[in-house]
Amino acid sequence: MPRGRRYSESLNTRLGAVLTSVLLSGPILRAAEPIPLPPKSDRWNAVRTAHFQLFGNATPAKTREVGWELERLRAVLLALQRTLSANSPVPTFIYVFKTHEAMQPYLPLADGKPANAGAYFQQSQAGNFIALSAAWNVDPREVVYHEYIHYFMRANFPPLPVWYEEGLADYYSTFRSDSGEARTGMIREDHLALLRDTGLMPLDRLFAVDRDSPEYNESLRQGIFYAQSWALVHYLTRGAPERAPQLGRFLQLLKQDRPRDAAFREAFGTDMVTLLGELVAYIRNKRFFYNRVKLSELEIPTDVTTTPMPYEDMLYRLGDLLAHGDADRLSDAERFLEAVPPTAPAFPGALAALGFVRLRQDKWDDAAALFRRAINAGSDDFRVFFYDGRLRWEELARETRATRTLGPKEQELLASARASFRRAAELNPDFPEALAALGRTYLLEPDGAPVDGGIAALEAARARLPTREDVAADLAELYDRKGQKEKGDAVLRGLSGPEAAQARADRQGRSELERRIDAVNARLQEGKLDEALVLLDGIIAESGDEVRIEMEAQRDQLRKAAARNRAIAQYNDAIALYNARDLVAARRAFEKLAAESADPDIAAAAREKAAELSKKTPNKS
Q1: What element of type H or E holds 308?
Q2: Predicted confidence band at 18 (pLDDT cuts at 50, 70, 90)?
Q3: In whole angstroms, what is the distance from residue 309 CA to residue 105 CA?
Q4: Alpha carbons 262 and 372: distance in angstroms, whole number
Q5: If exposure means fewest CB atoms within 10 Å of the residue's CB, which of 157, 305, 465, 521 is most exposed?
Q6: Angstrom distance (rounded) from CA 508 to CA 502
Q7: Distances in Å between the alpha carbon of 537 and those of 534, 550, 554?
Q8: Per-residue buried b or exposed e for 353-365, using 16+ beta carbons within 10 Å of the residue's own CB
Q9: Domains and CATH numbers, the chain
């Protein structure tokens, strides 16, 4: 069993919807109204490009154009660094509604009503969901592109400073492609107007913003932070060509954990006040450059298939969208999914999406049953097998939380979880989460057991998720288990930033914990139970909840063993008095042991001997 690590992760996927600020007109549905099933006359098409799946009741041409535009954006991003493999850890599902009114029932809720938005982007562990309106008077691309940039950068680059990641996402949010060329870095007039009217924050404050900062989370402060982050990225990449390599150097030094001020001065050769002055002057400028690239110079896949969707498929896909949306929409998702008849090809998908609804409702047994039904109905959706494995892993974690052994039931759960994770990886080789989960199961193997299968899975996952601290930490631990500490060290050296520091600290903590547990085991082997308990009490006092739960269970067992050993020793002492014919002292010893021993067998044996001796000895002192 792994020591000092979490055994499981919450299945309550955190879903976030990112809303465009475009104000739209039209009636607002009451939040309490159930979403009506779409009419059977509604015509939907499924469009598949090389890297995206789209579903729309807009015209097939419009739906295809949305897919092609995203393929072009992906190609531009890929051209940023030719060595990129363009990881896409999860699929992206795009819903193209013909009008805003058609999309409105499926919008996330804001203050109990459908949000006043032209598009939104939702994330889950096994997929991204984008919904947008194709109406002629709405342009939802900025929000869609901004959030897709976040997904792409996090999947393909090491962790970036928050200001740079947000600035870059806004920089590419104005991406456009037409007339045979793609344009990036076009001006955000809303950001310029805000900065010209409000002013800028000091750069040291901008650089210090993280995801817990008020500037990142509070609506009144977000505007300046996003606008200035965009402006600084725009200036350093397009406004001052000589600064672009300095920006790269700055980010590299931060990756190496250099102090921010020292890294800035070394990279830019100036101070933050001076660079802020340059940025202020740039914002006041009236001419801004953007980047242009010919589409013919990009590697853009053009394959596309368009297929009319049967009504049952439309119900399943819209139900799946609702299942991954607001919690208040889950009852609507159920109605859509339960309306898919068992005879429809979409039925296994509907069962799987309904299983995800049950997951979000914390009805794990119901979810497990639905995923099993989906599998038995012939589902080939990798998500079904992934979540089925996760549920079995969670059950296994609960079963083994207070013990270090795997009984027949636990072995069966472990084998089932691994089989599901392997199947998920086979169905979608581009989904490294399944490989990461498969590798993690080997942490439950006892010391000395083979872990090569886990190492292979985690190495494959790490190749697709190079910045994930948990994947690296699990892999390093398995290398440690195999006696290859130098390989574990190399894995953690591949991380950078606070994630790396935390991973190394966690590993050091595990090593120290294992050293202390080894000391406990050494005392146990020497028969020094009381000394082992003292050491174990020290571990428990300094441990977190997960370790403390397991160690307290171990301590309870040791205390029972120590108490039994003491009782056996007292019983043997009483027998020695009996053999020495000191019957009065022996009787008293047996009576005392019968009254005080918590071990029922020893207490019963002591009472029996005391009763026997009471007939042979006087009761008075």
Answers
A1: strand 305-308
A2: very low
A3: 20
A4: 56
A5: 305
A6: 10
A7: 5, 12, 11
A8: bbbbbbbbeeeee
A9: 380-526 (1.25.40.10), 548-614 (no CATH)
Band of pLDDT at residue 11, cut at 50, 70 and 90: very low
Report d(CA 471, CA 435) in Å as an integer: 10
Identify the band that residue 423 occupies on the pLDDT scale cut at 50, 70 and 90. Answer: very high
Phi then psi for 306, rounded to 5 degrees? -125, 125
* Strand ranges across the sheet with 305-308: 17-19, 119-124, 127-133, 92-97, 53-56, 45-48, 305-308
Q: How confident is the model at residue 461 (pLDDT cuts 50, 70, 90)?
A: very high
Q: Which residues pair with 181 in a beta bridge?
A: 178, 294
3-state secondary structure of 123: strand
Buried b (16+ CB within 10 A) or exposed e, 606-617: bbebbeebeeee
Q: Is 413 in contact with 461 (CB distance < 8 Å)?
A: no
Alpha-helical regions (H) of 528-544: 529-541
- Cα dihedral 154, 158, 159, 163 in deg (nearest 10): -80
| Ramachandran sector of residue 199 (left: φ over 0; alpha: ψ -120 to 50; beta: rest) | left
**Contact call for residues 464 and 432 (beta carbons, < 8 A):** yes
Strand partners, 133: 97
Instruction: Give the other-Cβ count within 10 Å of 49's Cβ.
Output: 21
- 3-state SS record for 367-415: HHHHHHHHHHCCCCCHHHHHHHHHHHHHHHHHHHCCCCCCCHHHHHHHH
How sure is the predictor about 19, in pLDDT bands with cuts at 50, 70 and 90? very low
| Each residue's pLDDT tens digit, 507-517 | 555 556 666 77
Which pTM does this prediction carry? 0.73
Contact status, residue 79 vs residue 182, Cβ threshold 8 Å: no
Count of CB atoms situated within 10 Å of the CB of 44: 24
| Separation CA 102–CA 41 (nearest Å) | 14
Spatial contact of 197 and 230, defined as CB atoms under 8 Å apart: no
Report d(CA 168, CA 153) in Å as an integer.
9
Q: Give every CB contact of residue 556 below 8 A, 6+ residues apart in sequence.
A: none
Cα 542 to Cα 8, 54, 403, 519, 545, distances in angstroms: 21, 52, 20, 16, 10
Element (H, E) at 510: helix 497-525
Q: Which residues of 80-111 are buried (b: 16+ CB within 10 A; e: fewer)?
A: eeeeeeebbbbbbbbbbbbbbebbbbbbbbee
Per-residue tokens: 411: 């072995």
**Residue-wise pLDDT tens digits, 103-152:** 989 988 777 777 778 888 888 878 889 999 988 667 788 888 998 888 88
For residue 184, the cross-strand partners are 291
| Identity at 218, one-letter amino acid code | E
- Rounded Cα gap, residues 552 and 193, in angstroms: 60
Report the half-sphere exposure of 31 (CA within 13 A, side-chain side). Answer: 14
Q: How many CA atoms lie within 13 A of 395 on its CB side?
A: 19
Return the higher-pLDDT residue of 399 and 26.
399
**Contacting residues for 79 by C-beta, under 8 A, at least 6 apart:** 293, 298
